[in-house]
Amino acid sequence: MQNLFECLKYLFGGNVKFRSIISQAASISYDSLPISLIIAFISAAVIAIQVSKEFLMTGAEAYIGGTIAVVMIREIAPGFVALAIGARAGTAISAEIANMQVTSQVDAIKTLKINPVGYYFTPRIIASAITVPMVVLIAEFVGIAGGMFVAWGTINLNPARYTASAWAWMATKDIYISLLKASIFGALIALVCATKGYETRGGAKEVGASTTQAAILSTIFMLVADFLINLVFYIT
Questions:
Q1: What is the pLDDT of residues 4-32, one digit of tens each?
Q2: Phi-psi bin for 156: left (phi > 0), alpha (psi -120 to 50), beta?
């Protein structure tokens, strides 16, 4: 929490450079785009295979598109994309900052009277919070389209019926909540992974241990945040 306050102080102090945010955005989200879309497509394809036959047997095949759209938007896309970005970019953030810590680069920054927490953390948190929702939005589209192709290929469901069902079931609220989730997940991943890297002391062995802990902790924090967001918006 203290690191977050220091980042906010650094941000509102006008010390963050736009170029550093763009650089981190490319490293965190753009480079994670291929694996995120592959995961979204395969997840939707698996769901389509699971539900298509059962829906067809009960005469409810017209609801396949809506079911996949709701599942993808509410949970699969934001959750799986965040996990993919955490596994690829989050661990890289932790390893990079941990390596800077053990090689005394962080101490060198301090001698220049620069806040290392603000300098290293803030661009990464901002970039994650802004760009992870963009990846999630693309993943939702790819996932819904992937489900359509699988349903078309397996039970010969007319794409027009699929898309009509998807449009009927989709709600603007669900899209807003999924983007909110993605933004929070992105900020959490960057904050947790950067913190674990910054706390590293020792050598190469400790860098590896910190990277592993960062991956585990960011996943746990993300799942807890997911539960709380669902509790607030879908239960209360």
A1: 777 777 777 777 788 888 988 888 888 88
A2: left
